Amino acid sequence: MFLIILGLVLAALLSWVYLRWQNLKQYWAKRGVAHLPPHPIMGSLTFLQKKNPSVWMVEMYKKFKAPYIGIWLFWRPALIINSPDLARNILVKDFSCFRDRFLSSGPSDPIGSLNMLTVKDPLWSTIRRRLTSAFTASKLRSLQPLVNTKARELVQRIKNTEDKTKLSLRPYPPQHLFSDYTTDVSATAAFGVETNATLTGKDPMRTVTGAFMKFDVFRGLSWISVFFIPSLVDTFRFTVFPKWATDYFTKIYTIVSEQRLEQKRTEEPRDFLDVLLKLKEDSAKNNEGVSDDAILAQAVIFLFAGFETTAAALSFVTYELAYHPEVQERLYKELRELMDKSPNEQYDMSELAELPYLNAVMKETLRKFAPMAWLDRVALEEYKIDDHLTIPAGTPVYVNSIGMQYDSKYFPDPKQFDPDRFMPENEANLTPFTCMPFGEGPRGCLGKRFGQMSLRYGLSYLVLNYKIVPLPGAPKPDEVEIEKRGLSLVPGEKIFVDFVSRM
């Protein structure tokens, strides 16, 4: 009798699963939305660990010339947005319905779940409002000496190589060198600690950021869950960052914050760490519920997002410049002209930020190699996409920014590295919401100006001091393999260039 009952239960369960699957796989077809047939387990995510999501997003954009595409995150229906008008609605006009990002960690991972990237509203609004003060022009100017010093150390690091006639980074790939530089800049700004990775390549903080860039099977599964199936995070105790790394950050933050509190308080916060401490103090006064974990989480994500994205951008832009000497020389002349006017032989932040061709080179680099290919949101209530489609509350939505950035309708010959697209006289004619490397709307990248400053200084001093030359037989920029196991757009292979002194 028991076996009969067990058999009936299993049969009923299998029937339920089968019927649910049959209904689920018709979800987008019933709504008349373009889609590919889903995998019975992975849904549309069969590409994971095989190709970078950025590559997949571009492929999906080209395959379906439609304003939106239906996909499945395992068994959960989701929508890819390929239209700049719909992107504007989701990111700005109807932001109240899309305040939260879909990616999320859980209570078992407070540092991963409470940072600005993952935290939900209303705590997000409280933290965002308070942290905005850390990125005003005056605050960024206070960081100018730090960034200027580290950019000069970046040049000195190359000068310290053994071959004084042909300064090659072989066998040391530029992305490692640039990660040393961005670790120093971001770690000092975030934690108020002095690091020395740019000159030496070694520092305890650099050991931690180095671990951020490594993906084993467990780390890959952790990130897949955080980004695509957050309900599994607590079940398997997944974390955004390795536990030993968050323990290290906790120790550093505790020591430095105690030192700051013992010092005489100035009326205005001096750096990002001071802003965090002020946020903690105000939260306690106003009973806003911002925990110590939430404060630490902001410092950690500032370091992580700042170091990786800027290092990747520096790697890609130097590689593009090596293969486009005409662009490089035009940029050099602009930088040389500004430096010749400087009385102290160093760049001023405001003057550097106003150089049109430097900005155009940076923007074109980020168009081709946007650190994050998509902007994820989740509908908090039923939402009308257009006259043909309404999505229920809880539907994940992905604005396919990288797809639009590779659309020849908006950017002719999109694989070509052409900074002139972003010169002032041409940029004014670009379609809004077709190039969004820092996101758009209220949930756009808070550290955008800091990241731009770090990239601007590092690139400027490199081009001012060196000609960047490609190596024979190396892959061209569009042939460089993109990291398959990670989720951000970074090189998946070691790329090398030669730095030839201009002196």
UniProtKB/TrEMBL annotation:
Catalytic activity: an organic molecule + reduced [NADPH--hemoprotein reductase] + O2 = an alcohol + oxidized [NADPH--hemoprotein reductase] + H2O + H(+)
Record: residues binding heme: 445
Keywords: Endoplasmic reticulum, Heme, Iron, Membrane, Metal-binding, Microsome, Monooxygenase, Oxidoreductase
EC numbers on record: 1.14.14.1
Membrane topology: Peripheral membrane protein
PROSITE patterns attached to this UniProt entry: CYTOCHROME_P450
Protein species of origin: Leptosia nina
This protein's name: unspecific monooxygenase
